[in-house]
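$ ./design --mode recover --in tokens.txt
reading tokens...
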């Protein structure tokens, strides 16, 4: 059982239950109430601590209370007590963002944030590698921008890459099934742009052109799209709103009827 108090922070650690409580210590004033206050009594105002006078938060999303808990954990000399205190702080940090618990590396992120808030000065037993300060300043890796023109924009660049990959396969049922899948995907991509004038003959012709004659689907009479063709989302949204407003106006007209336009249910 450990109970420590410093600067308004009380941390209570038990073997079975770990809990952290933070409160502000209010000093009781011995001055009499205003009804019985003497004329020579001088009222001394309390000192207020403004946020502008406080040090900046390293990770503002966790708040100043968590930052003070981390600073208090750094003052503990006993390593075992310091480890227990950090585990308790991590449990509170996880409760602030419960919707992120399903993330695979959620605990790893909490440990990294704990080290960052301590300016990498916290010495505890972590189950993960300790991050380094230079890793935060390192720029992200540059994402290579795709080079070259797309021969058919409505099919996309990935279809061309799939065709190049399919050409490298050996002749057999796997290559044949892969070719059919590419043709079906080409039809789906084409239908996203034009839903009226897309024919299977055009798709097969473009497939032979993109593969330079190395992919040929002989005996295929009909292609099938990969998934159901979605409608125009903007048009569907407008139609739904128009129908909803029309129904609301119709209901209003039903409520106001009869002599003198009296309201009736």
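writing sequence...
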């Amino acid at each position: 059982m450990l109970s420590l108090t410093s600067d308004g922070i009380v941390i209570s650690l038990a073997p079975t239950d770990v809990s952290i409580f933070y409160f502000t210590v209010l000093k009781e004033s011995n001055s009499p109430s205003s009804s019985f206050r003497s004329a020579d009594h001088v009222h001394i105002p309390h000192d207020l601590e403004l946020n502008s006078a406080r040090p900046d938060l390293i990770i503002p999303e966790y708040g100043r209370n968590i930052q003070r808990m981390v600073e208090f954990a750094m003052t503990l000399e006993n390593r075992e007590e310091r480890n227990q205190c950090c585990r308790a702080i991590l449990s509170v940090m996880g409760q602030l963002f419960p919707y992120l618990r399903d993330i695979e590396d959620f605990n790893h992120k909490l440990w990294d944030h704990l080290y960052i808030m301590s300016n990498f000065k916290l010495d505890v037993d972590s189950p993960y590698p300790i991050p380094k300060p230079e890793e935060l300043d390192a720029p992200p890796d540059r994402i290579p921008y795709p080079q070259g023109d797309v021969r058919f924009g409505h099919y996309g660049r990935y279809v061309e890459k799939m065709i190049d990959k399919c050409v490298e396969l050996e002749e057999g049922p796997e290559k044949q099934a892969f070719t059919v899948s590419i043709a079906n995907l080409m039809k789906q991509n084409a239908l996203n742009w034009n839903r009226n004038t897309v024919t299977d003959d055009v798709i097969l012709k473009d497939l032979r052109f993109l593969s330079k004659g190395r992919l040929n689907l002989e005996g295929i009479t009909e292609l099938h799209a990969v998934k159901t063709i979605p409608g125009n989302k903007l048009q569907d949204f407008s139609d739904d709103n128009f129908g909803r407003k029309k129904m609301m106006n119709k209901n209003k007209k039903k409520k106001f009827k009869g002599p003198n336009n009296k309201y009736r249910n």
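exit 0
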